């Protein structure tokens, strides 16, 4: 018998794993998960009741597509249901994008640093990442437009941007969209849409109507607090939305996830009060960290970027030992999720103690 093993595709070599090493909670004492931009609130009782009820039917398959959720979202967003695709989180929709829209050798333009899934999605498809550095922590839309070539098949725009929390306004975004050739897909990743409070915040769902190359991506993971159940959706003109749906994993959104998302839409008022509180905490946290002398750009998300440069890893390590589990970007900064007010108080005190020169 020969001992050769099946050979994975060569493209996989060197593609980083999606999940970086998670921070380690200390052996004793409480710890706070501030490294994945999660919502600090547990599910509402009404959402938990829907989850429990749906869980009792786990012996059955869900529908191939979550049709009831699709219809509810269509009503909520005032778009026809054919404009929607759904998946297990917005990362599930990126897989649809990779399969439906990217070919080997295509170029995909996106800013860097940005959402870490982008290079993975692009390289998995055999396409070529074209990374355009942020300018002063913000999308450099002129440079991104200039990076588009006849080989570009897509632009990914993280708006607001993860990990910096920064955003571009509606007018600037529209000018950029007008410069992108109509055969180039623009993915407007609005994972943090509900936290974006500037009056100039763009709305990808509104923008998609007269832009056949635009896909707006949203998720139930952040504002709706359903990260553990994996529900995301995309809104696009029907030709694009239906191509993506063709590539969706059948039954990729479980019945439990669908019912939880439906219950969350019904409880949106209560959930958005929580989002208001997170936004208020974000501003309190930023004011406090800035007063300590840290450079923290304004954020339109549920996290803050702390430019700690070369000291980022050491600072994250110290916070980790105190149970504050944040995300370090070595040599660059920390990304800190806005947590409960208790976690935020502890963070302000701990970072204050670690401030150089204090
Ligand atoms: N887009 C961005 C910009 C994100 O930061 C995240 C999660 N961190 C996602 C998409 C994926 O979210 P999910 O798959 O949970 O919907």
UniProtKB/TrEMBL annotation:
Keywords, ordered alphabetically: Aminotransferase, Pyridoxal phosphate, Transferase
GO molecular function annotations of the record: histidinol-phosphate transaminase activity
Record bears the keyword DNA-binding: no
Catalytic activity: an aromatic L-alpha-amino acid + 2-oxoglutarate = an aromatic oxo-acid + L-glutamate
Cofactors demanded by this protein: pyridoxal 5'-phosphate
Enzyme Commission number(s): 2.6.1.57
Domain Aminotransferase class I/classII large: start-end pairs: 37-350
Any matching Pfam family: Aminotran_1_2
InterPro entries for the chain: Aminotrans_II_pyridoxalP_BS (IPR001917), Aminotransferase_I/II_large (IPR004839), ArAT (IPR024892), HisP_aminotrans (IPR005861), HistidinolP_aminotransfase (IPR050106), PyrdxlP-dep_Trfase (IPR015424), PyrdxlP-dep_Trfase_major (IPR015421), PyrdxlP-dep_Trfase_small (IPR015422)
Region: Disordered, residue numbers: 1-23
Signal peptide coordinates: none
Entry superkingdom: Bacteria
Enzyme class per UniProt: transferase
Positions of post-translational N6-(pyridoxal phosphate)lysine modification: 222
HAMAP family associated with the record: HisC_aminotrans_2 (MF_01023), Phe_aminotrans_2 (MF_01513)
Family affiliation: Belongs to the class-II pyridoxal-phosphate-dependent aminotransferase family.
Function: Aminotransferase that catalyzes the conversion of aromatic amino acids and 2-oxoglutarate into corresponding aromatic oxo acids and L-glutamate.
Subunit structure, interactors included: Homodimer.
Protein name stated in the entry: Aromatic amino acid aminotransferase
Organism expressing this protein natively: Kitasatospora herbaricolor
